[in-house]
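Sequence dictates fold. Below is an illustrative record:

_____
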Amino acid sequence: MAEVLDDVPLEEGDLTVTFNPPLYLQRQAWILDIFRRESVHSVLDIGCGEGNLLRCLVEPARTRPPPANFANDHELYVHTLHGLDPSREDINYAIGVTAPLGRDSAKDFTGHERWARRGARWMPLTVYMWEGGFEAINKVFHEANIDAFVATEVIEHLPPDLLPLFAPVLLGHYRPRLLLLTTPNFTYNQRFSPPGKKSPTGYPDPTNRTDRIFRHHDHKFEWTVEEWRSYCMESAAAFGYEVEVGGVGLAVEPDPWNREDNLGFASQVAVFRRKNAPVTDGRDLAGVNPHHKPVLQAVHTHEPHPLSSEELSFPSDREKVHQAVREAMNEREESTLTFAELWSHGVVSMRCKGQIGELERHFKSDGLDPDEWVVIKAENGWETAVTWKRHGRDTWPFKPSWWLILSLQFTEKEG
């Protein structure tokens, strides 16, 4: 689905500018990609709003951490999340979208079916939701050794007295391993109007510090590409960080005046990576008068699947895993499936107790019946293919998924 930036009121003669995927999803994808590559396990979302990013981060990984031969491009193994926002209404909404499903649902038959069909959580997750502002020093954030701080479309909303505190508090005091920022690109605002329009579309600077027209009524400033780069480079140098500056978001429609190369991206981004160099900026934060001291409003504990704490016995469970694979192929009416396709079948992942390496181990050639199974290995373990040669001929030991789920329940009770 494409996105039109509806924060910018269109006037006669203005241009329609759409983004596909929507711009907020492109920003989110940029953040998640860095989190995966940097092996982030704990996050503080500053100005989390209604929890759009946190909602993604609470989703469980499909496995426990996999062996090295399984590409890990799509998984995040987050164990701690913090959300911070000064808006009571927004933080209450975010509390709702980050809450776990009903605790009782994991204990009955319906719960087992939910684990199988919606994906099990194999590692615990704790979510802390705070109402307050970034400027008030919170010893929890300081002592928790959080991997990454992120502030998505936040900095441009800061009033003039808080903006000078942003880098000193986040980079100078808390010093996370990573800080990810996004902010609108003022230069890109020209893309919404034809060149030379006397009265650009948007909102006048509410602080009266400039004569600029902004993209949103609550923006206190918007930076050009050069101003953004300068701010990021100076902040990184002052507090012992390296910084990489870039952008996301290009319009679907070609610009009639071919201005794309000069305007850049709709959203500017920056990722700060901490160095071991000592901090050179010695600003004293003791006198900071916070607008809104953080108050903890909710703590969510996302419990892992009961099977996650158990070890597999080999080779006694091999036939149970093979049986689940047969069932997956029967349901999909396919005789060959990759490990990735098999893993999406809830009963397979449950039989392997969240360890994709166990599925691989149960389909090694040693001890495998060559009259029933063929395995074609791939460099990326997820792409390894399993062929069931008897598909379509044997009906036993097939049992429908509900039987396997119920069997799992009783097996665990007996164990």
Summary: Confidence is low (pLDDT under 50) at residues 103-118, 395-403, 411-415.
